[in-house]
Amino acid sequence: MPVSGFDHVAMPTADCERFIAFYESLGFTIIDRDKWRKGKAKIFALQVGPNNKINIHPPDKKGHLRGKGAAIGCGDLCFVWDGAVEEVLAMLKRAGVAPVDGPVPRPGGRKGGTVTGTSVYIFDPDGNLIEFMVYPK
To answer: What does the alpha-carbon distance between residue 24 and residue 36 come to, in Å, rounded to a whole number?
Structure first.
């Protein structure tokens, strides 16, 4: 199969500035934030690792392609945390975000789902389920 991975995924938000503030508080870099604020970009994105991003669609739905059924709060995203579970919990505490579940063991995507990691779950301001997975070193 010639597909080698993900480049990006996309999801909508109800409130762009609230979204930006929340994800910046978790340490994410926002791509094209300033261009979007100046009206020079139709969307902005979260940087995820060196080669991936999540495109964020503003609520107006104008000027860009999006899935026909894209709904605010429909996301279920898992980010790999390169560190200890205690560091995830400390970062969330600093950001004022309470976990809704975890730390709990979960099968991840590595090696065809055969590697178990430890997951911590939160909800973002739009109601998307966000998971931070820590794999054993």
So the answer is: 16
pTM for the full predicted model = 0.89
- For residue 4, is it left (φ>0), alpha (ψ between -120 and 50) or beta? alpha
- Specify if 112 maps to a domain: yes
Determine, yes or no, domain membership for 107.
yes
pLDDT for 78: 95
pLDDT in tens, 1-40: 687 788 999 999 999 999 999 999 999 999 999 999 999 9
Amino acid 61: pLDDT = 65
Helix ranges restricted to H, the chain: 16-25, 33-37, 85-95
83 and 42 within one domain: no
The Cα 78–Cα 121 span in angstroms is 9
44 is a domain residue? yes
CA distances from 110 to 10, 60, 107 (A): 22, 37, 8
